[in-house]
Amino acid sequence: MARMARWLCDQGHNVVVVVGELGPGASLFHNSKSLVELGHDFERLKTASPERAASLLRQHDLLRRVDVIVAFSGSALCAGLGIKSAMNPPAVVCAGVWTPGTYCARGIRGMLADPSGVFFRNLLLPSCRLFPSSSIQAQVESAVGRKVPGVVWPLAVDGTRFRCVVRRPIHGLIVSVGRLGDMKTYNLWMPQVVKELKQRGLRVQWHVYGDGPDRKRIEELVSAAGVGQQVRLMGTLDYSRFPEVLASAFAFVGMGTSLIEASFAGVPGIPAIIYSRQPQTYGYFSDLPDYACGDVLDRSMFPVADLLERLLTMTPEQYADAARSTRRHATRFEMDPLMRDFFEMVTRMPHSTGSWWPVWLCRMSRMSIRLYNSDVLRPIRKQLSRQSR
């Protein structure tokens, strides 16, 4: 989101990023005026009438002409439709599946818990649905049990600041960067991979940058594997220091944007699979098809330890070839051509028709959640809990 906003601002476009709460990524925005924190009003936009939405936007000086609204989450899509209802002329709304599982809720219960999937599949036109890869699109279709036409538009990464990294890789230094939690479960099995490589007689170090709810569990797994001397949990990495970290990395294990950025720097990458419980993957990053960078694919898997051992035992010439292949593969994610395609794409997107039902469905969702959590239904909740056991 920050990288897209920066590119558009640099091209002379006016961009406003609307969030509920500022997170650690706020520092990535080089122009603080383009970032607006709505607080509780972000949630209120989901259920606001057009008049109420206009009033909320006016309070934040956001009631202005808007051409395109891009939603980066299910919650953002609901709020974006609320913003659109207040606009005259209306804006184009598009949404992408940037997080696995987004827009996949099914049935009445799922619809009331998270109505964004209904809006994504039934309100947005196909040209306004964005998928970062064809495999992610297939996963959404499998989850909802129907075809969901859309446009494949991959993660766009600014490779210029990583292409110029002067590489002095330290042999055996494996680097991972990302949140310690959620879908990045590879952090839980990497201590075992390090132990296995150590048992094979290979000297390795694993430096992990990031923080999150799994940190304590990772520390316990490191201790249980007996690799405390080989693993260092480095804490949160200042984004400006990422090129410096990549300069010394021999290999990178991760997914998503950080994997692509490491590849631009020429660090051979091993893609970790989302929510993976076993230390296996589909090969090196440069082996993956399409725009996959951590997706679940229908193809053979290999032990991560074997892939790392192969890298560690390469000749200097073989390692240089692997680095070049990695860089070539990363170019498909280059920011400039992809953003130019994106800009042309959104200018051709038709305006979806206005509708009253997103607001009312969001209101029903909120009411059903409050009712379910109320004391009135406590006996029913206990009964359902007993049955689930």
Structure description:
With 389 residues, the protein is of the alpha/beta class. It contains 17 helices and 13 strands. The strands form four sheets. It has a five-stranded parallel β-sheet, sandwiched between helices. The chain has a four-stranded parallel β-sheet with strand order 3-4-5-6. The longest helix is centred in the C-terminal third of the chain and has 16 residues, at 357-372. The model has no long low-confidence stretch (mean pLDDT 87).
Short description:
By secondary structure, the protein is of the alpha/beta class. Helix content is 45%, strand content 12%. It is globular, with a radius of gyration of 23 Å.
Distance between the termini: 41 Å
Q: Indicate the overall shape.
A: globular
The major beta sheet can be summarized as: 5 strands, parallel
- Overall pLDDT: 87
Helix and strand composition category: alpha/beta
Instruction: Specify the helix fraction band.
Output: 40-55%
Poorly predicted ranges: none
Number of DSSP helical runs: 17
Global Rg: 23 Å
Number of strands: 13
Strand residue content: 5-15%
Strand order across the biggest sheet?
9-8-7-10-11
Sequence of secondary-structure elements: HEEHHEHEHHEHEHEHEHEHEHEEEHHHHH
